[in-house]
Design goal:
By secondary structure, the protein is of the alpha/beta class. It folds into 4 domains: 5-111, 2-Layer Sandwich (GMP Synthetase, Chain A, domain 3), CATH 3.30.300.180; 145-302, Rossmann fold; 307-376, Orthogonal Bundle (Helicase, Ruva Protein, domain 3); 384-474, Chromosomal Replication Initiator Protein Dnaa, Chain: A. The protein has 21 helices and 9 strands. It has helices at 5-17, 22-28, 49-58, 60-71, 119-122, 155-166, 186-200, 211-223, 227-235, 252-267, 288-294, 307-321, 327-336, 341-357, 364-376, 384-394, 399-403, 409-425, 430-436, 442-458, 460-474, and strands at 33-38, 41-46, 76-83, 93-98, 176-180, 206-210, 239-243, 271-276, 298-302. The longest helix is centred in the last third of the chain and has 17 residues, at 341-357.
Length: 475
């Protein structure tokens, strides 16, 4: 029976599969196609030059052994590179390159090293000087679902995250966009999803990266003229987690390359998870075609934790650290640090540290000193409830009146000022602001903000309202 290129390659793959991890096999060998067999030379097609370089750097010895078993000691391997020109006229090009030693796979060493190789770029997570390192997930295992406590403020986002973690790419939550203010747990939840997926599906390639780091890598790839290799690296990821996606704002080139990567991953059933400090509708200088894709799946907001959730967070933190604390102190902390989980945990750590280092018992007086000192030096985000109370008091009305449907001019202006300062001083989405200030929609909030800007520049009395309230809310 005559041998074909495919049969020879299948035999090679059987040997290779037994000698590497399932993840490496799936990433670097499944995409290869056998195209031609002549005498002792096997031609294989790879998706890009980057792919070829990676195989030659990391798997040349394994390929040599596998092919020698099939075709003898004089076996040759020729790479056929066929790749779509993503930024040109979309015409494929083909290039044939012999294996690294140019004559055969007999030599144990690569005698003709490739020029312009840059492993740090092609796999942006390879540590310089260390070879044969697989793609690391960049996940923090301490950020998991066990210590991401559920409450009314995060139930939707946490439940959606768990669904995605159990079935990545297989739910309607793709992409999953988690948004909310600073310190509410966006990064924690994103990591928790990734950690759970790695536990449940160890063969999947999961990667966490900040939008800032992604942008830096893209700029580097443009400088070194290997943008297509950069794209291909991200296209082999099974679960891509991008933190602070709003930082792509105004970066047209990075948005364009992310658009191509996103499309490829989504079309191939891969999971995309994004975090942002604002909802898609509030993102500025992001291309509409990209925003529309962010809306394909689910956008889940993390809101400020309620009192019960803050109590649970404090008790969980104390339990983890093996510290006991009187109930009145727990409630004091929960009542005085309301808007930021990170800030709350920081205050607990400071309190425990002062107690331990100074050998002092944790008392309510000590807690008050720590909280006063901690909050004083921490930039705090005021709540929408607080803003409504200050604005209502200023105009001598109650909050219910401010939120009412009346169209009386002075009440409408008070409501618009509350919306204006909520947008200015909090990280809440326009939709969330509108919902909390009289059940309005995001368009009403946007109109209110524009009206305040216009009146403040044309009406002297109204400008005084803005200045007075700004002082009261930012002291």
């Amino acid at each position: 029976m005559s041998r074909t290129a495919q049969s020879v390659w299948d035999n090679c793959l059987s040997f290779i599969k037994d000698n590497i991890t399932p993840q490496a096999y799936k990433t670097w060998f499944e995409p290869i196609k056998a195209v031609k067999l002549t005498d002792v030379a096997l031609n294989i097609q790879v998706p890009s030059k980057f792919f070829y370089e990676w195989l030659e750097e990391h798997y040349v010895k394994l390929l040599k052994v596998a092919l020698n078993k099939e075709l003898g000691e004089n076996a040759k391997l020729v790479y056929v590179i066929k790749m779509e020109n993503t930024y040109g006229n979309n015409q494929p090009f083909t290039e044939k390159i012999p294996s690294a030693n140019r004559t055969s796979l007999k030599s144990q060493e690569v005698s003709a090293p490739l020029k312009n190789k840059n492993p740090e770029l092609k796999n942006p997570f390879v540590i310089p000087g260390i070879r044969n390192l697989q793609i690391e997930s960049q996940l923090n295992p301490s950020y998991n679902f066990d210590n991401f406590l559920e409450g009314d403020s995060n139930r939707l986002a946490r439940s959606a995250g768990m669904a995605v973690a159990n079935k990545p790419g297989g739910t309607s939550f793709n992409p999953l966009l988690i948004f909310g203010g600073v310190g509410l747990g966006k990064t924690h939840l994103a990591h928790a999803i990734g950690v759970h997926i790695k536990d449940q599906y160890p063969e999947k390639t999961v990667l966490y990266i900040s939008a800032e780091k992604f942008t830096q890598q893209y700029i580097e790839s443009v400088k070194k003229n290997n943008r297509n290799d950069f794209i291909h690296f991200y296209q082999v990821i099974d679960v891509l987690i991008v933190d602070d996606i709003q930082l792509l704002s105004g970066k047209a080139g990075t948005q364009d390359v992310f658009f191509h990567i996103f499309n490829h991953l989504h079309q191939n059933g891969k999971q995309v998870i994004l975090t942002s400090d604002k909802a898609p509708v509030d993102m500025q200088d992001i291309e509409q075609r990209l925003l529309s894709r962010f809306k394909w799946g689910l956008s889940a907001e993390l809101q400020h934790p309620g009192f019960e959730t803050r109590i649970s967070i404090i008790k969980h933190k104390l339990y983890q650290d093996g510290v006991e604390m009187p109930e009145e102190i727990v409630e004091f902390l929960a009542n005085n640090i309301k808007t930021n989980i990170r800030e709350l945990e920081g205050a607990i750590i400071s309190l425990i540290a002062h107690s331990s280092f100074n050998k002092k018992e944790i008392t309510l007086d000590l807690a008050k000193k720590i909280v006063d000192n901690y909050v004083k030096h921490t930039k705090r985000e005021v709540s929408i409830d607080y803003i409504q109370k200050i604005v209502s008091d200023y105009f001598q009305m109650d909050v219910d009146t401010l939120q009412s449907k009346t169209r009386k001019r002075h009440i409408v202006q008070a409501r618009q000022l509350a919306m204006f300062f909520a947008k200015k001083l909090t990280k809440a989405s326009l939709a969330s602001i509108g919902s909390q200030i009289g059940q309005r929609d995001h368009a009403t909030v946007l109109h209110a903000c524009k009206t305040v800007d216009n009146l403040a520049s044309t009406d002297k009395q109204f400008r005084k309202y803005v200045e007075d309230l700004n002082k009261k809310l930012t002291v």
